[in-house]
Amino acid sequence: MRQFGIISSSIWRSKRFRQLESDLARLVYLYLHTTTHGNSAGAFVLPPEMAALELKVPADDVRAAFVNLADARLIRYDPEEELIQIVNFFRFNSISSRKHLQGPVRIIQALPYSPVRDCAACDLILAMFERREEWREKASRLKHSEQRSDHVEAQKILEAMGGFDSAAADLVEEMKLEPMLTSQEIGLDANTLDRLGEALLIPLSHTPIE
After folding, report:
1. Which of 23, 56, 87, 112 is 20 to 30 A from 137 in CA distance terms?
2. DSSP track, the chain
3. Cα–Cα distance between 70 and 194 in angstroms, integer?
4. How many C-alpha atoms does 105 have within 13 Å on its Cβ side?
5. Nearest 5 degrees, angle CA 63-CA 68-CA 109?
6. Could you give the angle at the alpha carbon of 171 between the alpha carbons of 90 and 105, nearest 5°?
7. How far is C-alpha 130 from the geometric centre of its chain's CA atoms?
8. Is there a contact between 181 and 125 (Cβ–Cβ < 8 Å)?
9. Tens place of pLDDT per residue across the chain (210 aa)
10. Residue 103 and residue 87: Cα distance in Å, rounded?
């Protein structure tokens, strides 16, 4: 059971959050970040009836809140699979290592098939890519140092980058994520797609998605 959830205090300045239709929708959003049904991937199956029981409100009101949150693009929601993904979850729950990565990967792979599941996988890949880009810049600085210890650290960082790239490429291939990764739903610009494709050794270009 998850013991805690992370949510940024900047939520109170978020235009999307403040413009939600009801206080219940705002409460449900906070609940999704902190519920014990959540996980390290920010994507989980949650029947509205379960949330309603814990929030002590009617299930139909929770369903309406889920739809409102999805319309505001604060979550992605598949009502048939009762699957929820918190948008931008990894912005505040970053992936720090390959060991840390294993949990979210297993969780996402075990989710029921759904476009929401694929979006969660793409968000994880992008979080990995952002981290490896930070490491790449750090390794570049260390390689220009005159200290041997800095060169050793740079090599370790490059090896970690390679591990992230390999894991991300495997996830794209295993889950057949290329159409979603290059779709308007994920919304990557051409430059980012080019750099991501170069890192994963997968040519990427924009494709439509139904």
Report:
1. 87
2. --------GGGGG-HHHHTSS-HHHHHHHHHHHH-TT--TTSEEE--HHHHHHHHTS-HHHHHHHHHHHHHTTSEEEETTTTEEEETTHHHHS---SHHHHHHHHHHHHHSPSSHHHHHHHHHHHHHHHHHHHHHHHHHHHHHTSS-HHHHHHHHHHHHHHHHHHHHHHHHHHHHT-HHHHTSTTTT--HHHHHHHHHHHT---------
3. 29
4. 19
5. 70
6. 50
7. 12
8. yes
9. 566 788 889 999 999 999 999 999 999 999 999 999 999 999 999 999 999 999 999 999 999 999 999 999 999 999 999 999 999 999 888 887 778 889 999 999 999 999 999 999 999 999 999 988 988 899 888 888 888 888 888 898 888 888 889 999 999 999 999 999 999 999 999 999 999 999 998 988 766 544
10. 18
43 is written with which tokens?
Answer: 């994507």
